[in-house]
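Exercise 7 asks you to align residues with tokens for two separate proteins.
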Amino acid sequence: MKPAFVVQRYGTEINGGAELHCRRIAENMRKYSDLVPLGFLPEEDKFDALEGARLLVMPFFYECLSMVTLEAWAMRKPILAYARCEVLKGQCLRSNAGLFYDNCDEFRESLALLRRLEGT
């Protein structure tokens, strides 16, 4: 499964910045899946990455209903959101278009469930 990690520009003032946070999560999860953190992308590359991904991972606590979430859903891609982000968790529940996780075990189980639903 090839999830897309999308990084929002929060800046370096938040624990080293979102890109660093994303890369750390991807490195930790790499042993469970074939994650490829891409960092910041131009708009056209972002859409290519989303098109090639099976889901969008939003691993951030400080997030709202972001544009990239709506773009992924418009492309019929599920979202895997951090459960402590109440906005995205609630949107996943209401839309039935995503899952959420609070720890590594839940992340792995969510990926496994998405694989089963896809038939891969």
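Second protein for Exercise 7:
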Amino acid sequence: MRINAELIKLQGLRSEVLNELRSVSTSNLSSPAERYLEHLDGIFRQEPKFYKEDSLIDGLPGVTSIVYTDIPEKGYTTALTYVLSLVRHRDWKYGRPELCISVESSNLDWAQVVPVLGT
């Protein structure tokens, strides 16, 4: 019962995360967060789960982990960050990165490692 309640809570977090990330965007059209999620949806073709870690950088929302189960194959967990690419860094000349991890495990704790590394 607790797992189902957590899953429902996490699935509902998508709109909360999008709303928060939209507040960082300066455009009323498609925000960077929406374009990123649309891109990931096109690749993974499944609804992800979301986890959030508080940001250590003033003015930026917490780092979000976007989690896909059974990707790239059954028994794996794949997680990507969002928010790192909003930070400007002098060494990032040709793009702005996000982090990704893919492990042969169904333990979702691995997915929560990615935003911690990004904070």
